[in-house]
Specification:
By secondary structure, the protein is of the alpha/beta class. The protein folds into three domains: 120 residues, D-Maltodextrin-Binding Protein, domain 2; 81 residues, D-Maltodextrin-Binding Protein, domain 2 (3-Layer(aba) Sandwich), CATH 3.40.190.10; 97 residues, Double Stranded RNA Binding Domain. It is built from nine helices and 13 strands.
């Protein structure tokens, strides 16, 4: 490749950390091309007037980057894989799932109190529909408050006293050197992580052999299998909007174990499923679809239908 390999990324601190990590991994390969970062603004960066979970649609932080890929303005798109829709744009391929860090949610409190010891009425900040639902289920006496901004900004808002506690992804805090602020990493059974949380996803144009050549070495086999199961489950469940769902697949020996939970936004009901399969991509995808069907048959369909009806009544502020 005579010209530089262009990596498209958002300009937030975490997105740039991830893009630079991918760039460094490419540069470490023998004969690698020069690499340059291209900053792209997404709808999620610009829509600050209303919670994103109250807006119809998906891929708020990824679609503009993938469209730049299709327009040949960049060669590789780097995303937090949890932001990437399970249905990719035509002509876009997920060419690498880079190493996955701790997928759990993290609790940060001003007082150092544990989740169980937070006083009634505590203001807990989160931008996630999933976390709001789990909060309502586990601690209905706590006040969930909208929290926007990049990761460092969210931590600053906590320190300034705008919130008593906030919940963020452990991986993002670790990548930015902010994990010293973590009070506790939340149990998967209580706060089941977002699908693909902690993983970096890299997309390229389908058929772009030159870009794929440099990205294949970055594809982590374990992360690929785990996120394949989670994304297969979500793809079956979702349908154009966010849902209060968590899923986590982990390789245990020669098996893959997938755990998933859907929770009503008011916390009144939750549905849990779990299953295992062989540790390969084909079996992982099949297990994800199987557990999605179990979730739906056990009552998740009605939870999601109620949530979608509620969202249609929400108008931008």
């Amino acid at each position: 490749m005579s010209r530089a390999l262009r990596i498209g990324t958002r300009a937030s601190a975490l997105a740039l950390w991830q893009a630079n990590r991918v760039a460094d991994l490419i540069r470490a390969q023998p004969g690698a091309p020069a690499v340059e970062l291209v900053h792209i603004k997404t709808e999620g960066d610009m829509r600050t007037d209303v919670p994103l979970w109250a807006v119809d649609g998906r891929a708020f932080f990824t679609k503009e980057i993938d469209r730049a890929l299709l327009a040949n303005e960049i060669d590789v798109a780097v995303h937090s894989l949890k932001d990437l829709s399970t249905v990719l744009e035509n002509g876009v391929e997920l060419v690498a799932v880079v190493e996955r860090q701790d997928p759990r949610d993290a609790l940060l409190t001003r007082s150092g109190a544990s989740f169980a010891d937070l006083p009634a009425g505590s203001r807990v900040g989160t931008s996630s529909l999933r976390r709001r639902a789990f909060l309502a289920h586990l601690r209905p006496d706590i006040q969930a408050m909208e929290l926007r901004g990049n990761v460092p900004t969210r931590v600053e808002k906590l320190q300034k006293g705008e919130y008593d506690a906030i919940i963020l992804a452990s991986a993002g805090l670790a990548r930015l050197g902010l994990d010293k602020h973590i009070t506790a990493r939340l149990p998967v059974a209580d706060f089941t992580p977002a699908v693909s949380q902690g993983a970096i996803g890299c997309c390229a144009r389908a058929g772009d052999a030159e870009a794929a050549r440099w990205m294949k070495a970055l594809d982590n086999a374990s992360a690929r299998i785990e996120t394949t199961a989670e994304r297969a489950l979500l793809r079956r469940i979702e349908g154009g909007c966010q849902v209060p769902l968590g899923a986590l697949a982990r390789i245990e020996g020669d098996e893959l174990r997938l755990f998933s939970q859907v929770c009503a936004l008011d916390g009144s009901k939750n549905v849990v499923v779990e299953g295992t399969c062989a540790s390969n991509v084909t079996a992982a995808a099949a297990l994800g679809q199987q557990l999605a069907e179990e979730l739906l048959s056990k009552g998740a369909a009605s939870i999601i239908a109620i949530e979608r009806g509620t969202k249609k009544g929400v108008a931008p502020a």
